[in-house]
DNA sequence: CCGGATCAGTTGTACCTACAACCGAAGACC
DNA sequence: GGTCTTCGGTTGTAGGTACAACTGATCCGG
């Protein structure tokens, strides 16, 4: 069962991509943890809530928007709630569902954290690229995502048959 | 201290890159764990050793090649040693240093794991891209790496002054 | 040589994530 | 209306990573 091996160009791209995937989370986590006591994933969760109407989202919806599994999100939101940055309330229309809402403290946290975070993103990624490369990166990442998570489902479809997806 | 915010194109690129960085490790880890009982990082370590002369590398050198910190590598290598895939021996020329060597079992493990892993890499990343995009990806990732890890040092320089780097 | 600084590496602890098992609520079917 | 299945979410636990503290070996200046 020999696969098609990687040629030189493919290998170069792959090795560098792996390095980025390995290093980038550490850089982002480090900056956010030092400056705000937040994981990059924590920040992602707060940011998604801050952009939602009523600053509120169902847990499942929040999970898909943050590319996370539901168990992971559940733990993270519990911790954020203990810190007063988020509130959880049972959804009145569906007894199973839970709504997560950003508190005022959470909103303030996002507002004060965003500037330095954006600066870090620029410094370590975007400012290293030409405008053409930024466009190319968007297209490349989009293509890869279509393979990594064909339907943006993530948490929802653990072992679905191919049909209907 | 307001930063330059992200324009539409930059935001598109960034959001997608974050999604890739969030999802890709899970896909790689999942495949390797199911098929070989290895983390992606474990595999990376074994692969680097398998390409080295004598299948042997100093811990520090191995750390830089795998983009890891030394404490992390130390834990991982200990586990791999307990499984008989790697051997550690004190370096005779420098009493501080430790050499890590791939055992025969470790070599066999890499040989039998590589094909399916390469297939996964193709399926989820490279085959989603045109040849031009693969080239672009290599250049983009290279540019980003120059910011993430200016000297490929990683573990070596925790708080070095800028001069001399 | 001899003491301080640095280096290579290990260990311990705290935290985060993945996975699996679980629970109650909502539909589906007859 | 009673069971079966699915859905939305939480909890417990095992395992991996980060960070800091530590050990012993080497190097450097006097």
UniProtKB/TrEMBL annotation, chains A, B:
It comes from the Bacteria. Pfam families: MarR_2. Gene3D superfamilies: Winged helix-like DNA-binding domain superfamily/Winged helix DNA-binding domain. Residues 1-146 form the HTH marR-type domain. PANTHER family: MARR FAMILY REGULATORY PROTEIN, TRANSCRIPTIONAL REGULATOR, MARR FAMILY. This is MarR family winged helix-turn-helix transcriptional regulator. It comes from Geodermatophilus maliterrae. The lineage of its organism: Bacteria, Bacillati, Actinomycetota, Actinomycetes, Geodermatophilales.
């Amino acid at each position: 069962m020999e696969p098609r091996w990687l040629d030189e160009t493919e290998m170069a791209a792959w090795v560098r991509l792996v390095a980025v995937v390995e290093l980038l989370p550490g850089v982002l986590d480090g900056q956010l943890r030092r400056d705000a006591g937040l994981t990059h994933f924590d920040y992602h969760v707060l940011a998604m809530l801050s952009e939602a109407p009523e600053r509120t989202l169902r847990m499942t919806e929040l999970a898909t928007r943050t590319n996370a599994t539901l168990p992971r999100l559940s733990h993270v939101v519990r911790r954020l709630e203990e810190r007063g940055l988020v509130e959880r309330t049972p959804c009145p229309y569906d007894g199973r569902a839970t709504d997560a809402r950003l508190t005022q403290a959470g909103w303030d946290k996002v507002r004060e954290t965003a500037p330095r975070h954006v600066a870090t993103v620029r410094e370590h990624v975007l400012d290293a690229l030409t405008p053409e490369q930024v466009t190319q990166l968007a297209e490349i990442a989009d293509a890869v995502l279509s393979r990594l998570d064909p339907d943006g489902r993530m948490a929802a479809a653990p072992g679905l048959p191919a049909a209907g997806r």
